[in-house]
Amino acid sequence: MKADYSTKHPAEQTSPRSRLGWSADIAAIVQLENESGLCHQARLIWDYHTTHDAQTGLPNLDYLLEKMDAALAHTPACSLLYLDVANIDAIGEYHGIAGALHALRAVAEKILNCMRPEDVAARIHGGAFLALIVEQDPSALAQRLKQEICASIAWQTDILHVSVAIGIVRGSHFQGNAEAMIRAGYVAAQSSMAQQSNNGICHFTEAQGKQLHRQYQLVSRLHTALEEGSLSLHFQAKVRADDGVLVGAEALLRWNDSQLGPVSPAEFIPVAERCGLITAISAWLMQQAMSELKIWQQAGLDIKMAINLTAKDLLCETLLADIQAALRKSGISADKLTIELTESSVALHPQLAAQQLQALRARGISTELDDFGTGFSSFSHLRKFPIDTLKIDQSFIVDIALSAEARAIVQSIVTLGKTLNMSIVAEGVETLNQACLLRELGVDILQGYFFNKPACSVEFVEQINSWLPLKTQLFLQTASERCPTETH
């Protein structure tokens, strides 16, 4: 016997209705023949409400999961398409709730029009839709869905437009695990956004499967990282270029998990942002860095501390209050703190960023634009932000001794920063030659492995008392002996 994978609810089978119905569906259900009495009718109405999406009339996630379990049990030849429809929120902001609902319902109608009666379409949240198909080419359906969904939508006197990213997952790869299929579909849809060459459609691959497993491992372990104390800070020196004096340190987050081992910040920070843990982690980082700085001050080391914040931190309404609380608790004055933000985080929400940066400056906290040159800043854009320091990305430093182009880029950034009354920091300084060249180009502060490798607080203090003076002495002696013409 052929399994039933259709979207139809039992209540729908006794009353004709359109494939997309709204309140009229309920009225139709009430008109059922009174074979089992009003209780039976009420049960059908209740079942319909609990298994269908109120906005579009499509089945919801619970209903889809039931159908997926049945499909996966009967045949491996089923596929799932995850459709991530974009621009619904923007339509709502401009046209109101009515416009957004119209767009959602139009998308739902288009999805159904592309599918067979025995297939299942569902809306799970926001602009996320799912399509479960059996014994059908998912790639061909994905192409048809993309073409239909991206077609314009008439709304009153306007035309609405949405876009869609589609992830394709084959059931044979998931051994009956419906929820894992949906997660895989989401990953594939996100990959399709990042890969511009695939027309917004992406098949879930084995490599993505490994990546997905790794992501869930990271999320699980991050939840216990603060409790277990597996997060720590390492510190890297900031040295003034003209006299070699230590003027600051950057606090760098490290994670050495008991199960996963050392995990790079480049890997776990984005995960922490996505799973909502970044605010707690940043708060811990801030308090820990301030506490270490207080210990250093008590030992006679009077320098500034730089900490990195993310785009999520910048959006946090309590950011200023959290920073001030950390300063009060540690007894550190505001002028000893520098907040580092990346170009991309500032460019993501420029108006809010400008407000937050201005508020930080008003409280005596300096700000530094990290990884400068890799993002989106222009002169006209940059001058709107109250930034105190530009940090040149290390990608421009690595070839500075060999490439005239790299030196020209650094020189242009220095000129830009000086024009805007900003200090210039160069990170990733790994050789004596690089340090000397950067000094000659007008860079104010130098940071990198040439001066010290990032280390825990105890080792950092040992470095600046022993290793760092030797390095700065060599640097200053070499720099004084060099002629500016040697940079060419």
From TrEMBL:
Domain EAL residue range list: 215-468
Residues of the GGDEF domain: 76-206
Q: Which SMART domains match?
A: EAL, GGDEF
Determine the domain of life of the protein's source: Bacteria
MF terms (GO), sorted A to Z: cyclic-guanylate-specific phosphodiesterase activity
Write out the transmembrane intervals: none
Q: Which InterPro entries match?
A: Cyclic-di-GMP_PDE-like, EAL_dom, EAL_sf, GGDEF_dom, Nucleotide_cyclase, Rev_trsase/Diguanyl_cyclase
Task: Please give the PANTHER family that the UniProt record associates with this protein.
Answer: CYCLIC DI-GMP PHOSPHODIESTERASE PDED-RELATED, CYCLIC DI-GMP PHOSPHODIESTERASE PDEF
Q: What is this protein called?
A: GGDEF domain-containing protein
What is the protein's species of origin? Answer: Aquitalea palustris
Q: What is the lineage of its organism?
A: Bacteria, Pseudomonadati, Pseudomonadota, Betaproteobacteria, Neisseriales
